[in-house]
Design goal:
Order of helices and strands: EEHEEHEEEHEEEE
Shape: globular
Helix content: 10-25%
Number of strands: 11
Radius of gyration: 17 Å
Strand content: 35-45%
Largest sheet: 5 strands, antiparallel
Number of helices: 3
Distance between the termini: 27 Å
Number of domains: 1
CATH topology: Cyclic Phosphodiesterase, Chain: A
CATH class: Alpha Beta
């Protein structure tokens, strides 16, 4: 069995596709997260780590990251907006989260497109049904929330590929690819 961080053929990267909020949306989400944390205890998500996972691949050979980026580059993408207006806590994994009340069709198409292209290139990924949510508190004491959810509007202009590195303080994330490439200075794989 390969050691952590190394596949049978060499080094691996723990990666996933995500929506990454702009600073304004991230700050609004963190304000909600702080309120949830006060009620549920647990571990508040770090502000720089707030995101919505679209497709989790896990350990992927580093040598295949360019092929993964090429697959992402041909996924049809259309900018879209959605509101975040739902908050809850899953007791089975002690995760407090927020989400849109309904999944926008453009989000469903994006996730389906990613799954199709990634599978066509032979990548393995987590095949659980997509449940759009943003984790704000882990190890939460899931009790009924007394929370007035503010209206948070998220304008989605791109999606990203993220590398996750685990250390004693949890996961650290680095954006390693962004699509569509809309301006100079975007990260690339």
């Amino acid at each position: 069995m390969p050691e952590a961080g190394r596949g049978a053929g060499g080094p691996t990267a723990r990666v996933f596709f995500a929506l990454w909020p702009d600073p304004e949306v991230r700050q609004a989400l963190m304000r909600v997260g702080l309120k949830m944390h006060r009620q549920l205890d647990g571990r508040l998500t770090r502000e720089e780590s707030v995101h919505m996972t679209l497709l989790f691949l896990g350990d992927t050979p580093e040598e295949r990251l360019p092929a993964l980026a090429a697959a992402a580059a041909i996924v049809p993408f259309e900018p879209f907006k959605f509101s975040i207006g739902q908050a809850d806590c899953w007791k089975h994994n002690k995760v407090a989260w927020v989400a849109p009340p309904a999944t926008p069709p453009a989000l469903t198409r994006l996730v389906s497109g990613l799954e199709e292209r990634v599978a066509a290139e032979g990548f393995r990924f987590d095949r659980r049904a997509f449940a759009p949510h943003i984790t704000l508190v882990r190890k939460a004491r899931c009790v009924p929330l007394d929370l007035k959810m503010p209206h948070i509007q998220w304008d989605v202009r791109n999606f990203v590929l993220v590398r996750s590195e685990l250390d004693s303080n949890g996961s650290r994330y680095a954006v390693i690819g962004c699509w569509p490439r809309v301006s100079q200075g975007q990260p690339s794989v």
